[in-house]
Amino acid sequence: MGRVDWDEAELRYVSDSRMSYSMLASYYKVSKPTIQAHGTKHKWKDKREEFKQKRMNNLLSKFDSDLDSINEDHLLKYRALRSVLYALFIDVVRIDDKDIHKKTADMARLSKALNAVIMQERIILGLPVYRKRAETNPHFINPYAVHDAEPITDEEVRLAKERFRVRQKRIEQIKIGRKKNI
To answer: Nearest Cα to 39, choosing from 57, 23, 54?
Structure first.
């Protein structure tokens, strides 16, 4: 039988969740019941749980502080990008361009980009971000709409998917019917 440094054995068991009484017994060249009896008497399992909990709390607090700094950095970048997009939007509006289609397309792209930036800001700030149903088509889900819309329920999503499948089947039947007529 070997001599056991009980403080070291406890430290090994408590700090390494993979360490077992059997592994400690083979390391110190003693029987497993000897290690187990000492561990039970000194509540090593409870100490291991406390150690895990403390380590998890330390990791979570570090993660929270890292996440806060990352969110602040992203928020600053999104706000700077929003300012640039607003300036570009105003420039496009002021341009006396004869090609109204190009101007409209530029404005639409800038609007989508602005909306995406605002949505990301809302996410970072913890504000609600919902999809909004289009007024013209209640089955259309607009991913760019934010603001005061009600959240879409699972049932509404299921119904929209079902309608989409039915529509796709009809389209396929029409295509097959046209091929037969040719």
So the answer is: 23
| Six token digits for residue 130 | 């919902």
At residue 140's C-alpha, the angle toward residues 160 and 158, to 5°, is: 15
Burial of 98 (0-12, 13-18, 19+ CB in 10 A): exposed
**Residue 49 CA: distances (Å) to CA of 2, 10, 25, 37:** 28, 13, 21, 18
Quick: pLDDT tens for 89-117: 777 777 766 666 677 777 777 778 877 88
> Which of 23, 22, 28, 27 is CA-nearest to residue 4?
28
- pTM here? 0.39
**H or E, element range at 16:** none
Burial degree of 94 (CB within 10 A; 0-12, 13-18, 19+) = exposed
Give yes or no for a contact between 146 and 132, defined as CB atoms under 8 angstroms apart. Answer: yes
Alpha helices in the chain (DSSP H): 6-15, 21-28, 32-41, 44-94, 100-125, 154-181
- Give CA–CA dist 10/38, Å, rounded: 9
Query: Running DSSP on this structure, what letter comes out for residue 133?
Result: E
Each residue's pLDDT tens digit, 34-78: 999 999 999 999 999 998 888 888 877 777 677 677 777 777 888
